Amino acid sequence: MFHPEKLTVGKEIIIYTYQNVREDEISLYGFLSLEEYDLFVKLISVKGLGPKIASAILAKASVDSLINAIEQGDVAFMKSMPNVGSK
Question: Helix or strand or coil: residue 9?
Answer without folding.
Answer: coil
